[in-house]
Amino acid sequence: MTRHLPALRTRTALAAGALLATGALTLTACGSGFTDTPGEGQASGGGKLTLLIGSSGDAETQAVTDAVAAWSEQSGVEAEVQTANDLPQQLSQGFAAGSPPDLFYLAPEALAGYAANGSIAPYGDDLANKDDFYPSLVDNFTVDGQFYCAPKDFSTLGLIINTDLWSAAGLTDADIPTTWDQLASVAQKLTADGRVGLAFGAEYQRVGAFMAQAGGGLVTDGQTTADSAANVEALDYVKTHLNDGTFAFASDVGAGWGGEAFGTQKAAMVIEGNWISGAMSADYPDVNYTVAELPAGPGGKGTLQFTNCWGMAADSGNQEQARSLVEFLTSTDQQLAFSKAFGPMPSIQSASDAWSSANPEQTAFLAGADYAQFPPNMAGAADVITDFNAQLESLKTGDPQALLSTAQSNLEAILK
Fold it and tell me: What local confidence, expressed as pLDDT, does residue 56 receive?
């Protein structure tokens, strides 16, 4: 399942280790987990396909393994699923050794680097189901006009509300916020008894939703827009409510991520993705909650999406079979099976109605697909975001304009 969790993690978050956000990819060749002989262990015509995944846990590993086994029985092509402990590192080491897996989970921020050095095959336009993927997900995996790889699933951010605390504060369904002013109002009413109204991670991957709602974003149409007036307005809004005590960063309430702040009821509302459902059922089953779309800001509705694709090695000798396997894994029936097994949202539009019927309490996440932004995916962007996140930690006392100007300069440097 695709997700973005912060560096500090609870036991649940550690189990949800499919976070594949990476910094700059360094191609080193030691301890890759694959054979060190170039080409050996790699699929060649008629050989065994190898897949490397970054799993969120046993449920995901078993579901992918079972699906691949079903395809192998159907196709007659042997395939093996390997689970990485550190997927970005093992993948880069496999390429450096000349023995990458045929297929692998690939994060958007890793795509540009691998595309630039010719390591991955741009097979997206050859997929029979290419027109079924959500357009924003296709954009996420398009570099220089080429659709490289099939999005395997995705997630968006929503507003998670503790319904018991909501009712206790005298709030009803009619009070679910649809604007920033309404969000501030209900957050104030929910801030009581040592509990904050709204919490979220001190990182662009959460705060960036406010930037989108203001009509901003870090990169727009290939141009750096980090220091835009819209982004300043967004950070000013967040800063105001961090200071009045109705909003808080998860770390400031003693939580490793939003899910922990919500589950321990240190926050009545949080901004998180649909992966929170697994954490709640596993660790906080007695906390009742509902999910709403994030409220609109001055620029309209906005949220962020997170995804990975099925990358394919350019040197794979079994590209036709690998593409067939990807079409199987991203089919409507198989994506719905994955969703049932470990919770992701299907990346294809044809699965929308069936997924919504099976998950009525989470449809707000899927609604976000129509207007979601994705984090910048050009080479070097992950490092810029890491620096931006470090500065966001001091937003409560910092200068939003100065913070965004630094991000602007850093993005301009990698876009030159």
Answer: 78
